[in-house]
Amino acid sequence: MSIKRFLATLLASAALAGSAYAHAPDGTVKPNFSHALPNVPGKSLVAVEVNYPPGGASAAHHHARSAFIYAYVVSGAIESQVDDGSARVYKAGESFYEVPGAHHRISRNASKTQPAKLLAVFVVDTGDAPLTTPDK
Predict the structure, then answer these.
(1) In this predicted model, what pLDDT tens digit does every residue of 116-132 receive, in sequence order?
(2) pLDDT score, position 26
(3) Is 13 helix (H, G, I), strand (E, B) or coil?
(4) By Cβ atoms counted within 10 A, which residue in 9, 42, 104, 125 is the most buried?
């Protein structure tokens, strides 16, 4: 890979990972992994850890229009509602997904006493940012 392409990929990855911070106003979002997919030109894989304190929640939001998201509950329990689907509680070891353009209506820790952690993995157009936009 050329140095120019490497630097462009690095900058785009940093922008994508950093833009996810709006995802958890009552918690923290930490970049976990970001890399351009070499066999899928124009696409990147970006992973972030979302840590919710007891009772913590994110505002309703949309993700980048190109983003397909796989979400895995690492610990605790997360209540989620995507689009017009039913709200559901996912426990550690369970997962769900969001299709591009989905509206994430509910994303919160299902417990008022225990923390929860979610790993969100985005397959997204390289440079498509922000990853998360709260509803107005």
Answers:
(1) 999 999 999 998 988 88
(2) 73
(3) helix
(4) 104
Angle at the Cα of 67 from the Cα atoms of 65 and 90, rounded to 5 degrees: 120
Least confident of 5-19, 49-63, 64-78, 83-97: 5-19
**Residue reference for tokens 């006493």:** 113
Domains present along the chain, CATH in parentheses: 3-134 (2.60.120.10)
- Angstrom CA distances, 47 to 4, 67, 78, 99, stand at 24, 12, 17, 16
- Given this model, what pLDDT does residue 20 score? 44
What whole-number distance in Å separates Cα of residue 29 and Cα of residue 25? 9
Classify each residue of 29-44 as buried b or exposed e, where b means 16 or more C-beta atoms within 10 Å of its C-beta: bebeebebeeeeeebb
Task: Give how far the C-alpha of residue 91 lies from the chain's centroid of Cα atoms, to the nearest Å.
Answer: 17
Work out the average pLDDT over 75-92.
Answer: 97
